């Protein structure tokens, strides 16, 4: 299917449920997709950072995207991450996910390889666009990529037709606004999708002019984010803010992991999966290697966050 | 073949020659290997950063390692990089390169994924070691990985038998010395290889106690680095320093690219390949996408560096 | 005078006009204060980063704070920056500015010295609070200080009574919100001032719950920021956003300086002062050493930004 | 006195002993200077980072430099740090320390203020040189300043006569070598002093061509560093390396502080002062605020490092 221009609403980055021996748990993935669609989401983003894409082998990525496309069956657009170090490797993923039926691909700037000059980043996206049969969305995630996509590079690539959208997980709302306003001021950019990945300030991003949101926490509470989106568009901004603040409190679960024993990412992804497990959506809360698993006590604390948000 | 314990001497990270349409240029790769072996090197490291591993597709990586292993035919140890974001993906590369005959694998800490806690890094290497049929060498490259491998983590993993060596490209000689001295002080670490990737201070690293060196510039002048290594071991430290300084001057070629037009990595890898092209070793100086190619004038400046070092 | 609890509205960080030989231009500073007060601002913050505090000698700082306090004459609260590397040096500034009559002091975490542990930062603020005769406001500016003040440290210090407010120039609205909500949830923190320094997203910060704003660009257009604040509080959020976007366009002036010739800070502070000069507020647009001055053509481009915003 | 051109040998950055109430302990400072001179050092560097210059008030800095100059009485050159954020503030320190009799001043690039463009850094040093009655030495300390001084900027400023030397505490030996070789290749730079601050690789820096060393640990064991310097110059490089390794082991004391309770700098400076106290050189091991003091158990561990190095 064609993705809407622009894509709007809530497009969760779908977690990848794993079995105890770290294979993709296909039945759980299907149930998770059902859970998200029942929550009213407007699209799905598989193979993003919250999906543990960096940990999935190529074979596993294939299982994920095929499962999602088949299970969704065209009811919603399915975007697929094509996360890899440089253009040639990303192009291999573009081929794989589009053959499996993805409706758009989501690509970061190069990483590990030090090609961070704006001209190199632009060349990267131009080459992706030239080969991709579906629209290309830029993914700005400086915490992982270690460069920030400059607003003017994005706008120029959009004007060329090389980019169809931006998923901004930089946390930098001023830079995000520069893209939003730049799109609005250039009529030829009509239809370009400006999406925020900052799950704690989605109300603010929508107020600034975001088209939609890609919140990792929407795995746990899709209905909450859909409600936030609707409240915003109905003009009830106070209720939207209250809903966002409820979700911020729920997000506190990402800190359950003991920092002496694990990093913040093991804790956050572990908490999301523990929450899905506790809510009965997935069968096993395992995260991929080499992440450190949460202890039973830490999982219990996740449960308290769920209870506090009325989700248990 | 078994890699020596420790591995010593000069082990260049082998450039990956490409055709004009960016496929692996197998005949040129064979000629490059001949050129390195004629220079007297003590091992080969394929699929490292200087090999543009981050730009090579899995298929291309396979071609490289198979070509190298076959062409070398056991005359030298062949180490292969298994560079990817996390453990499961690295393990796929481990399988691929060891099936092709690599004698050791060289792996960084996880990147992109934020698993940078010492416990997560240790878990990563333990899992690699548990599955790899050949020794695992840790690759410390903070400029790409955005974490520094702590000396104590390396030494502990070495003591467990999980690591067989370290390739340190951090540029931090004090931290490097901590590993060298730590190995010397712990008898159970006898045979652990401590290799420096800092091509501009190899004389200093050897004096501190490095077992060997992995200098990218050795592609261009393998005989120079081998001479430097021999001069050091013969005790003629003044001549070793003079040879190192000649190589430092040659290394100046990495700055030929116009910084307004490209990043430092496009410039540096472009210069190495231009030099190999100008010396008649490879057929085409192309670098992988999305790197920016050197202009003819910039290539000409590479030639002047070669001439200045007596290599043209 | 006592500062309001909380401090609300627009509190510009006052530029420090300089003479051509880089002395404080006292008549221009008085005119700038008049200009700001005529614009309707709610307080003044002297000796902040936009005031070039890092460039002013102790003697010059004294002239600035004495001039401001005397000229304002109690009509508005005057906050004064006490920016220095560590506690003992900051305490000297606290003494100086409070003897001159400052109503509150604004202090960063330590910098240059590497005391960035939360316990060290907390100790710093506790010592400042114990000695300061006026309230202490924490200043979060990671771009200069190279650490981010953790929300929980700020909230705990606020609960102890050590901090009276926060000026957040981190650009991280999610972390800002954590402080805003934390203050609201803890009744004992009533009156704590949460101020944003992010001049491009003040509408969003107010919507999230900021008490007030400290925008550098308010030197150039104080009436615009006061209007934005009023529109927000009157509930006309669309007009508030439009006003903010007009100010964002005006902010574009910070990029007039040629990046080949100077850094972004020379360009930005040079543009603010050029704008004040072109608007007839100050006599000389000089910035402090070693900043690079704008060229006449660059100053002319500042004029175009003013014209575009209806300010010339 | 004129400083030698180049300055050679061991020039310790002198710790600043404090009383229990954090005033400069003048008798202890004199004893520390005696201890260093008895150890055979070749110059003294007061008000450097190891001297806690960032924590000393202007009045305390004055006491330190006056005490040192008077007590040394021209027997050795005394260099003084003039550490502050930007040119005008540094110039105030230049006036203060040269009136007190310092023989050279040591200045970093600007920090806190974001003037990090090479043209801005060059302008800073040119202005310092134009006003300073004594030679200016550049201090490269990226860990505190958050920029690295580029080798070509240093060499160009040296050629202009604006800089008399470099104290390099970057830990980047390859960049250090670029300056060393650059000085050697440009006859007009004869007499420029290239000094390393990397106390763990001084043998390597000397082998590369350093003129001298500025090791913080030389406060604790000046005789050791002087011995290392002599062994190097006598050509007994194996013994020089052994001495360096003994000093590296001694340096392990910097890790005694519990990282859960304090940062690395509180631990390191606390350990140096504890060592001087345990060796009977200074009366009180207090460090400046807001550093966290070592516990009695941590001090005891410092004693074990001293014993291990034969210093108790």
From TrEMBL, chains A, B, C, D:
Domain of life (superkingdom): Bacteria
Enzyme class: lyase
InterPro entries: Aldolase_TIM, DapA-like, Schiff_base-form_aldolases_AS
Key words of the record: Lyase, Schiff base
A Gene Ontology molecular function term of the record: N-acetylneuraminate lyase activity
E.C. code: 4.1.3.3, 4.2.1.41, 4.3.3.7
Family annotation (Pfam families): DHDPS
Family to which the UniProt record says this protein belongs: Belongs to the DapA family.
Protein name: Dihydrodipicolinate synthase family protein
Origin organism lineage: Bacteria, Bacillati, Actinomycetota, Actinomycetes, Kitasatosporales
């Amino acid at each position: 299917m064609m993705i809407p221009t622009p894509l709007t609403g809530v497009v969760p980055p779908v977690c990848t449920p794993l079995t105890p021996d770290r294979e993709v748990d296909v039945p759980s993935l299907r149930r998770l997709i059902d859970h998200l669609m029942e929550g009213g989401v407007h699209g799905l983003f598989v193979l993003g950072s919250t999906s543990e894409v960096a940990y999935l082998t190529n074979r596993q990525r294939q299982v994920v995207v095929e499962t999602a496309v088949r299970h969704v069956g065209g009811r919603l657009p399915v975007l697929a991450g094509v996360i890899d170090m440089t253009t040639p490797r990303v192009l291999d993923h573009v081929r794989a996910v589009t053959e499996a039926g993805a409706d758009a691909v989501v690509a970061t700037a190069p990483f590990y390889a030090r090609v961070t000059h704006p001209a190199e980043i632009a060349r990267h996206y131009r080459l992706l666009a030239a080969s991709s049969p579906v629209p290309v969305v830029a993914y700005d995630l400086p915490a992982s990529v270690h460069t920030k996509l400059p607003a003017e590079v994005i706008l120029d690539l959009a004007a060329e037709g090389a980019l169809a959208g931006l998923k901004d997980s930089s946390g930098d709302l001023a830079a995000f606004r520069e893209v939003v306003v730049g799109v609005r001021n250039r009529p030829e950019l009509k239809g370009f999708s400006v999406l925020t990945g900052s799950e704690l300030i989605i109300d603010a991003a929508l107020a600034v002019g975001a088209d939609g949101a890609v919140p990792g926490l929407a795995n746990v509470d899709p209905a909450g984010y859909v409600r936030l989106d609707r409240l915003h568009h109905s003009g009830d901004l106070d209720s939207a803010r209250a809903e966002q603040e409820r979700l911020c409190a729920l997000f506190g679960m990402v800190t359950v992991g003991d920092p002496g024993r694990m990093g913040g990412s093991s804790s956050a992804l572990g908490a999301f999966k523990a929450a899905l497990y506790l809510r009965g959506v997935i069968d096993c809360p395992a995260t991929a290697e080499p992440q450190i698993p949460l202890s039973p006590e830490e999982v219990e604390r996740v449960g308290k966050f769920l209870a506090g948000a009325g989700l248990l």
